[in-house]
Specification:
The chain is about 5% helix and about 35% strand. A hairpin with a 7-residue loop joins strand 1 and strand 2. With about 80 residues, the protein is mainly β. The longest helix is centred in the middle third of the chain and has 6 residues. It is globular, with a radius of gyration of 13 Å. The protein has a five-stranded antiparallel sheet, with no helix packed on it. It has one domain.
Length: about 80
């Protein structure tokens, strides 16, 4: 599996309701995570090289939401790569 990097588009399966699949962008990975922000408690740490922080896009006025320390997988609350077409 390719390691996710900041700026890449992934899909995120929601944890609430119908577990909707949304587009998301990686906002931090193990290479770009600010260690000082983690030390100060401003940014959550990542559990592995495959965990990421995301901005999840949603339709409507809200526009999206943050998800932190998201693991890869197919179950709700995880990210996965979009299919190649």
């Amino acid at each position: 599996m390719d390691r996710p990097t900041t700026g890449r588009i992934v899909r995120y399966r929601g944890e609430q309701g119908l577990h909707a699949i949304r587009a998301a962008i990686v906002t931090a990975d193990v290479e770009t995570l600010d260690p000082e922000g983690v030390r100060l408690g401003a940014v959550p740490p990542l559990d592995s090289a495959f965990h990421v922080h995301l901005w999840v896009f949603t339709p409507g006025q809200q526009g999206g939401f943050h998800e932190y320390n998201v693991s890869p997988g197919a179950e709700p609350g995880c990210w996965f790569w979009p299919p190649r077409t």
